[in-house]
């Protein structure tokens, strides 16, 4: 039975059903999700500690990578523990404030990641297209200003999403057919008109993510043009290799996000469990793969991690 909802009561809560159609499989599904969660947390913490302890990594490019790892950790901790509690212990209730806090973090930190990728693309553009000016443009001060911009822009644009949803009247419905508090999963329970909610999320999402993607594509177009002009043997391959890790991370991030958008647009033709599962994986696969890709492909980080492991092992 759905509880009568009074949004003025502090005791009000939602019930997250999990993944519809996967109830009998949720315990088994929790195993790979748990492993991915541990991998994401462990890899990102290792990367952060390595960059913190290795003086040779105290450079703007690695500070941006640290920012990306911090965003990944917050996203994982905001979403995955609650999902696992639902799968393991059937703890499906979530308070009104916790639900909308989760919604805010998911919306704002997802766009923060996109914005960080855009700043990292600009970093690679300056490094390859204007190498002599790189030390004077990409400085610690630049990274600090970029971090403030990433935080301020995405918090301001994302904050109305949970505010609009929290101000709706939910009448007698409190069962969310999802395992996370997404805007549409929650707002569709309301007996009010949610056109504004849908429209704002659509416009804000495409404005933020779309503008970041356009700037990333432009950066790589200029990088490719500059690389093709390089005459020295092996120089072009070396220049492209410096962008390889970043480009792979963008593919991980944008591909899963694109699939998620398509499945939500075509939700009538696709089982409801598919976009829910993809949404969970989007909060796990990029965070798990980001530090691994950089750790494997970046010589300095690889060597720093090896030195860190030797310290821990007491060698």
Automatic annotation (TrEMBL):
GO biological process: cellular response to lipid
Cellular component aspect of the GO annotation: plasma membrane
Keyword Transmembrane part of the UniProt annotation: yes
Keywords: G-protein coupled receptor, Membrane, Olfaction, Receptor, Sensory transduction, Transducer, Transmembrane, Transmembrane helix
Domain of life: Eukaryota
A single MF term (Gene Ontology): olfactory receptor activity
Pfam family, one: 7tm_4
Subcellular location, principal: membrane
Membrane topology according to the record: Multi-pass membrane protein
Annotated G-protein coupled receptors family 1 profile domain residues: 43-294
Segments passing through the bilayer: 28-50, 62-88, 100-122, 142-164, 203-227, 239-262
Localization: Membrane
PANTHER family according to UniProt: OLFACTORY RECEPTOR 56A5, OLFACTORY RECEPTOR 56B1-RELATED
The protein's name in its UniProt record: Olfactory receptor 56A4
Organism expressing this protein natively: Monodelphis domestica (Gray short-tailed opossum)
Gene that specifies this protein: LOC100618933
């Amino acid at each position: 039975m759905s509880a009568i909802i009074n949004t003025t009561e502090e005791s009000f809560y939602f019930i997250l059903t999990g993944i519809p159609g996967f109830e009998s499989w949720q315990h088994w599904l929790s195993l790979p999700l748990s492993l991915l969660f541990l991998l994401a947390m462990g890899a990102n913490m290792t990367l952060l500690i390595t960059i913190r302890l290795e003086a040779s990594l105290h450079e703007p490019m690695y500070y941006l990578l640290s920012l990306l790892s911090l965003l990944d950790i917050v996203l994982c901790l905001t979403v995955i523990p609650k999902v696992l509690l639902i799968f393991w212990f059937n703890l499906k209730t979530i308070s009104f404030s916790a639900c909308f806090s989760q919604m805010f973090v998911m919306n704002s930190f997802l766009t923060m990641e996109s914005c960080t990728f855009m700043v990292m693309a600009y970093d690679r553009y300056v490094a390859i297209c204007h190498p002599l000016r790189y030390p004077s443009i990409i400085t610690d001060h630049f990274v600090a200003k970029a971090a403030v911009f990433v935080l301020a822009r995405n918090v301001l644009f994302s904050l109305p999403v949970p505010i609009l949803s929290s101000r709706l009247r939910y009448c007698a419905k409190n069962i969310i057919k999802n395992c996370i508090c997404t805007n549409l999963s929650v707002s569709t329970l309301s007996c009010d008109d949610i056109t504004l909610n849908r429209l704002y999320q659509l416009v804000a999402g495409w404005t933020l993510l779309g503008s970041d993607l356009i700037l990333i594509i432009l950066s790589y177009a200029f990088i490719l043009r500059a690389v093709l002009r390089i005459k020295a043997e092996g120089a072009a391959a070396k220049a492209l290799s410096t962008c390889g890790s970043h480009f792979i991370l963008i593919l991980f991030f944008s591909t899963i996000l694109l699939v998620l958008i398509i499945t939500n647009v075509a939700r009538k033709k696709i089982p409801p469990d598919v976009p829910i599962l993809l949404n969970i994986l989007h909060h796990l696969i990029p965070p798990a793969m980001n530090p691994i890709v950089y750790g494997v492909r970046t010589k300095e980080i690889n060597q720093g991690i090896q030195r860190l492991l030797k310290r821990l092992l007491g060698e």
